[in-house]
Design the sequence.
C-alpha cells in the first residue's frame, strides 16, 4: 500500500512539473517583419539543381510561386511586404526536369508584426526647483507603446529618448537623466537636471527581439514610431543663500 501511494505521489509530481514547464514554453518564429519590410527565402539545395528543374513555393499549402532554375538564386522567393498580421508558414518542393516532384520542406515561419503607437504621459512634476533643492528635485515621464494586436513571444521594445534644453538639443541625453531601460510596453525617463530652464522631451520606439529568441527581425522604414505629443518640464532656479543684517 505504501509503495502504491509513493508511486502515485511521484506520478502526480511529474504531471504537475510537466504542466508547469509547458506553461513557460514559448513559440518563436524564423523571421519577424515590421511595417513594409520583406524577406527573401533561399533553398540551399538549389546548388544541386540543373537547368530545367523547378522549385515550387507554398504558403500554408497553397502554391504562391514556381521558378525554373537557370542561375544561382534564380529560385529565391521574396515574401510580400503586405502580409496580414500574424504567422505565415512557407514550404518549398523541387520538381525535376523530368516532372518528378519531391517531398516538401519543413515549414519556414514568418511573423508579421502589428503597427504600434507611442504616447508620453504628463510629467510627475511639470516644474521643480533646480540645484538638487529637496526630495522633489526630479520628474518622470512614461512612454507607453500600444500595438494594434498582441505581440508574439520574445518580442519587446527599444526606446530612444531625446530632449531639448531652452530649444537646443541635449547630447548626450544621459547628461540630464536616464531611462529605466525597460523593454516592455512602458519605459520611464527620469529627469534629474539641476540647471534652470525648459526641457522638452520626445521619444521613439521600435521592436526588438528579446534574449532567447533565435529569430531575425526585419524592420521597414515605418517600424520606428515617434510619440504623438512631446512633454515639457521646467526647472526653476534655487534661491540663493540669504544673510541677516540688523535693522536700526
Sequence:
Amino acid at each position: 500500500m505504501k509503495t502504491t501511494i509513493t508511486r502515485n505521489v511521484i506520478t502526480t509530481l511529474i504531471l504537475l512539473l510537466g504542466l508547469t514547464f509547458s506553461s513557460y514554453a514559448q513559440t518563436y518564429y524564423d523571421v519577424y517583419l515590421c511595417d513594409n519590410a520583406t524577406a527573401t527565402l533561399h533553398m540551399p539545395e538549389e546548388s544541386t539543381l540543373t537547368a530545367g528543374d523547378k522549385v515550387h513555393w507554398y504558403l500554408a499549402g497553397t502554391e504562391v510561386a514556381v521558378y525554373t532554375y537557370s542561375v544561382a538564386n534564380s529560385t529565391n522567393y521574396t515574401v510580400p511586404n503586405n502580409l496580414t498580421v500574424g504567422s505565415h508558414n512557407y514550404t518549398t518542393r523541387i520538381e525535376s526536369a523530368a516532372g518528378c516532384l519531391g517531398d516538401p520542406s519543413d515549414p519556414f515561419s514568418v511573423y508579421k508584426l502589428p503597427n504600434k503607437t507611442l504616447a508620453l504621459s504628463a510629467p510627475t512634476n511639470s516644474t521643480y526647483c533646480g540645484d538638487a533643492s529637496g526630495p522633489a528635485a526630479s520628474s518622470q515621464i512614461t512612454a507607453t507603446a500600444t500595438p494594434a494586436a498582441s505581440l508574439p513571444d520574445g518580442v519587446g521594445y527599444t526606446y530612444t529618448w531625446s530632449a531639448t534644453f531652452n530649444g537646443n538639443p541635449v547630447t548626450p541625453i544621459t547628461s540630464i537623466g536616464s531611462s529605466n531601460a525597460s523593454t516592455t510596453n512602458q519605459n520611464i525617463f527620469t529627469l534629474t537636471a539641476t540647471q534652470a530652464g525648459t526641457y522638452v522631451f520626445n521619444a521613439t520606439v521600435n521592436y526588438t527581439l528579446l534574449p532567447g529568441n533565435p529569430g531575425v527581425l526585419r524592420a521597414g522604414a515605418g517600424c520606428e514610431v515617434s510619440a504623438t505629443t512631446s512633454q515639457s518640464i521646467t526647472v526653476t532656479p534655487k534661491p540663493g543663500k540669504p544673510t541677516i543684517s540688523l535693522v536700526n
Notes: The domain at 31-112 is CATH 2.60.40.10 (Immunoglobulin-like). The longest helix spans residues 2-23. The chain has two domains: 31-112, 116-213+220-236.
